[in-house]
Structures are given as structure tokens and as C-alpha cells.
């Protein structure tokens, strides 16, 4: 009886693996056709200065609208793109979309930042640095307009990541470590990289004020970032209490539904202008 049971279990596992592989393959094929048919677009989520609420930038977040109209989020398709080596082509598409959406705005607002997400494969050579520089030049924007976000997975090939990061910063492009605390973070390699920003992952922000053991970690992350000279962007702020907690502890920047959900670039510009206008009116009243 034991042998058939083991055999059966083995069969079930093999079948599951096969089904997963098929799903991955069909997703991969769908991504290829999405690239051909131009089904990707970007949403932009405001990044605010916590002390003033001012919008200092926006993170570009990729979306895929399939031919049947369904919207697919990056958490579903970026991992497949990364495994299938389609990611560098997708990143190229992201750069074109950013250039298309934001060039004009950046030339008029030289202090505004666009943050982009890169994957590990994008960091294999400095070609990405040249590509970003060409984009910036064609745009008439400045390197300081860009922030590149890299998750800890991007540091697996540490020596090449270090070279690319160094080269980005030499050109004046700032670099952020994304989703900090969720990956393979080893403090020793973090110290060996020359970064500008640390993005505190939403999982730690969620814990603020809950009294859960993990809620204590935020304070430690803030202290560590400060001791390493990293500026901080807190991710996933949903409540005023979370914002106040971070503000009191000197975290400079934040992102989250409390300030704005990811939106089209047109909407971002519209709301940015409304805020500028409101600030001017207030200044005029005060003065
Ligand atoms: P991320 O870079 O950490 O982006 C932040 C994610 O948190 C976004 O999810 C955003 O919509 C979500 N978020 C922001 N504020 C809040 C909040 O207050 N509450 C909650 N519950 N969620 C919030 P999204 O857009 O689904 O992106 C997921 C991930 O996909 C990103 O995480 C990033 O790692 C990856 N991704 C997105 N766009 C790209 C891209 O162009 N290239 C690459 N390589 N990865 C991308
Ligand atoms: Mg990001
Ligand atoms: Mg993040
Ligand atoms: Mg994240």
C-alpha cells in the first residue's frame, strides 16, 4: 500500500509542476504579444515631503491592459518577465513610456523626480546607465530628475550592481533600495553600496501603532538608515497616524494611498497644478 501512495503523491506533484510550467509559458507568450501590441502603460504615485505635504516626485508603476480589457498588476507579470528574460525589453518599454509621459513636465519642473523600478537583469551591465542618459538628454531633462529603485534581489550579483550603481551616481542619477527589509538584506553589503535613499517597506509601516513585535523594527530601520547617511522614503502610508509617527522621527519622504493612489500622468499633472495654485492663493492671503 505504501508504494502506490508514494507513487500517487509523486504523480500529483509532477502534475502540479507541469501545470505551473504551462501557466508560466502561456503568461510568457502573452507578455511577448503584449510588447508587440503595446499593451503596457504607466501609473504614477506621488512622493511627498512629509513636513509640508509638497509633491516632490512620483514613482512610475507599470500596468498591463490585456486585449480583453482586464488590467494585470506588476506583482503578477514582473516575476514571469524576470524569469523569462523578457524583463529588459519591458524595462526598455518603461523608459519610452516615461519619456513620452514626463519629458515636457520635467523641463518645466526641474525639481520634480520620477522614480523607476529596475530588475536584477537590468543591472548586469552599464548599458542601462547609457540608456538612461540618452533618455534624459533626448527629453531635455536632468539626471537629477531621476531616481532608480532597486530591490535587494538586484544586489545578488553584487559586483556588477555596485558598478552600475556607482556609474548611475557618477552621472547624477540617484539610487534607492526598494522594499527594504523584505529580502536578503545583509547590513554588510548595504554598507558597501553607495546609495541615496532607503525605501521602508509597507509591511513595516502597516505595523506602526499595532503593538506587534514587528512594529518596533521601524524605529531600528530609521536609526540605521540615518547612521548610514541614507535619506528615507516610507512606502504604503494609509493613515494620518502613520504619517505623524514617521514625521516625528524625521523621515523626509513618503508615498501611500493617504497622499495619492497611482494615477495617470495627466491626472498627476492636473492635481499638481491644483495644489500649486492652492499654495499660491494661501501665500497671497498670508502675505
Ligand atoms: P514597489 O516598487 O514597492 O511599488 C509600491 C507598490 O505599493 C505599488 O504596487 C503601489 O501601488 C503599492 N502601494 C502604494 N501605496 C500603497 C498603500 O498606501 N497601500 C497599499 N496597500 N499599497 C500601496 P504595484 O503598482 O502593484 O507594484 C508592485 C511592484 O511591482 C512594485 O513594488 C515593483 O516592485 C514592481 N514594479 C512596478 N512597476 C515596475 C516596473 O516598471 N519595472 C519593474 N522591474 N518592476 C515594477
Ligand atoms: Mg518601487
Ligand atoms: Mg517598494
Ligand atoms: Mg513593494
From TrEMBL:
Its EC number is 3.1.4.52. The chain crosses the membrane at residues 2-21. Keywords: c-di-GMP, Cell membrane, Hydrolase, Membrane, Transmembrane, Transmembrane helix. It catalyses: 3',3'-c-di-GMP + H2O = 5'-phosphoguanylyl(3'->5')guanosine + H(+). It is a multi-pass membrane protein. Residues 24-276 form the EAL domain. The keyword Hydrolase applies. It comes from the Bacteria. It is found in: Cell membrane. This is cyclic-guanylate-specific phosphodiesterase. It comes from Massilia suwonensis.
